[in-house]
């Protein structure tokens, strides 16, 4: 490896870091940020009678999407599809793209931005991966996802990719702050997965990974509960319509399952689905709610809704109650949610995360009393209920540390890349 670069390709955000020969680490900047939004945006440039497909990624994708006069197609959370054998390709403005090609577009765009700062990145790279990919049911699914990801990186010119579990990468970053030996539980909370490792760390380059585990639950799952409980009822969930035979039927639940998952929402915008929604609207007993749902889908407002949900979730991390406001097109939703209610909605997910930590401790034959510290990283590490999982398991005697929640994995990957140079 001629250059030590580490890339954390995330469900929501990605980050790239460079480790110099002196051991210092520098993060790539993208429009003034150290993270690159993991989104791709397609629209059509009209020039006279002809139309030309335009595609951008990252910050430019968000800017283009938010400023579009006519809605294009915003593709989000591509990482969440990697373990699925059902997603092979999709049609975008009449063009067919495989999942690997979509991720490759994003990576090429990210690479171009990074190379403006660091020069040529070369063809070899260290990349983070979850312990278990979202949706993976077994090791074969994880292997399938890794192979697809490797193919996607080849689309961006990275022919040799070294994968490292994301919580292990975070351990390399955390190790830099140590001046003594510690047995550390690393907890990395991404958009699609929560990943854990138990590592024996010492100052310097030496460490021993005792074990890793993970679960396909994280920030996106918490967002989906807010959508299901707070927003979807305002858009017709639980409402009814009259069929052509006069029967009273519930509005199909699968529409709202797509609404809950950001990376599925854009796929609702098909002629078939919009025709169905308009038919339901015509016969709906609460037509104004279905009209709002049609506005959301037809105007591709999923990202704007995501922003509003994310703001509400972040406010709940700091206060006991948060207001929710969403006013776009002809949609107006004003409501509030209490932290206690939100934590009740995500109780099952919190239990699964706690069970995953217990499973890892048991596998490593480590007790809570053996652990010297817990290091938490990733966006959901801010959620108070997540923090309480570790406070309850390890007690007040074990310090819980946080830091650089969105970039510590990328920095750890770069540090590991530097080790590969020998």
What does this structure look like?
This protein has 14 helices and 20 strands. It has helices spanning 59-67, 99-118, 139-155, 166-175, 219-231, 254-260, 262-265, 271-283, 287-298, 302-318, 339-345, 347-363, 384-394, 408-420; strands at 5-8, 13-19, 25-27, 36-37, 39-47, 50-57, 73-76, 89-92, 95-98, 124-129, 160-165, 182-189, 194-201, 207-215, 240-242, 248-250, 321-328, 331-338, 373-377, 400-402. The strands form six sheets. Strands 1, 2, 3, 4, 10 and 11 form a six-stranded mixed beta sheet that branches. Helix 3 links the parallel strand 10 and strand 11.
How many β strands by DSSP?
A: 20
Mean pLDDT: 91
How far apart the termini lie comes to 10 Å
Helix/strand structural class: alpha+beta
Q: List segments where confidence is low: pLDDT < 50 over at least 5 consecutive residues.
A: none
Strand content: 25-35%
Supply the number of helical segments. Answer: 14
Overall 3D shape:
globular
Helix content: 40-55%
Rg over CA atoms = 22 Å
The main pleated sheet reads as: 6 strands, mixed
Task: Give the gist of this structure.
This protein has 422 residues and is of the alpha+beta class. The protein has helices at 59-67, 99-118, 139-155, 166-175, 219-231, 254-260, 262-265, 271-283, 287-298, 302-318, 339-345, 347-363, 384-394, 408-420; strands at 5-8, 13-19, 25-27, 36-37, 39-47, 50-57, 73-76, 89-92, 95-98, 124-129, 160-165, 182-189, 194-201, 207-215, 240-242, 248-250, 321-328, 331-338, 373-377, 400-402. The radius of gyration is 22 Å and the shape is globular.
């Amino acid at each position: 490896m001629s250059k030590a670069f580490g890339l954390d390709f995330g469900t929501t955000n990605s980050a790239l870091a460079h480790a110099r020969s002196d051991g210092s680490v520098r993060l790539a900047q993208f429009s003034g940020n150290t993270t690159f939004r993991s989104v791709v945006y397609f629209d059509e440039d009209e020039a006279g009678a002809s139309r030309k497909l335009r595609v951008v990624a990252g910050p430019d994708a968000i800017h283009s999407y938010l400023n579009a006069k006519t809605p294009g197609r915003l593709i989000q959370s591509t990482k969440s599809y990697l373990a699925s054998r059902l997603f092979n390709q999709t049609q975008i403005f009449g063009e067919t793209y495989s999942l690997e090609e979509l991720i490759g577009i994003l990576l090429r765009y990210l690479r171009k931005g990074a190379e403006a700062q660091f020069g040529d990145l070369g063809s070899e790279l260290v990349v983070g991966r979850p312990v278990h990919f979202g949706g993976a049911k077994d090791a074969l699914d994880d292997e399938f996802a890794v192979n697809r990801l490797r193919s996607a990186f080849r689309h961006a010119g990275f022919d040799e990719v070294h994968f490292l579990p994301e919580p292990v990468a975070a351990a390399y970053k955390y190790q830099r702050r140590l001046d003594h030996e510690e047995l550390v539980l690393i907890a990395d909370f991404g958009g699609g997965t929560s990943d854990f490792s138990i590592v024996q760390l010492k100052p310097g380059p030496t460490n021993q990974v005792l074990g890793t585990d993970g679960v396909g639950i994280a920030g996106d799952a918490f967002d989906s509960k807010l959508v299901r409980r707070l927003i979807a009822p305002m858009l017709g969930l639980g409402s009814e319509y009259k069929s052509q035979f006069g029967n009273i039927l519930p509005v199909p639940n699968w529409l709202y399952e797509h609404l809950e998952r950001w990376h599925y929402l854009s796929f609702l915008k098909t002629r078939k689905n919009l025709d169905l929604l308009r038919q339901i609207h015509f016969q709906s007993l609460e037509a104004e709610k279905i009209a709002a749902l049609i506005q959301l889908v037809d105007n591709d407002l999923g990202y704007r809704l995501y922003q509003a949900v994310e703001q509400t979730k972040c406010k709940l991390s700091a206060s006991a109650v948060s207001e929710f406001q969403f006013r776009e097109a002809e949609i107006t939703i004003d409501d509030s949610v209490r932290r206690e209610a939100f934590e009740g909605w995500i109780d099952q997910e919190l239990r699964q995360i706690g069970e995953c930590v217990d499973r890892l401790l048991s596998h490593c034959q480590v007790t809570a009393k053996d652990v010297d510290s817990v290091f938490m990283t990733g966006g959901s590490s801010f959620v108070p209920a997540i923090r309480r999982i570790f406070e309850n398991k390890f007690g007040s005697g074990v310090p819980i540390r946080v830091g650089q929640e969105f970039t510590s994995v990328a920095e750890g990957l770069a540090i590991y890349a530097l080790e590969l140079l020998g």
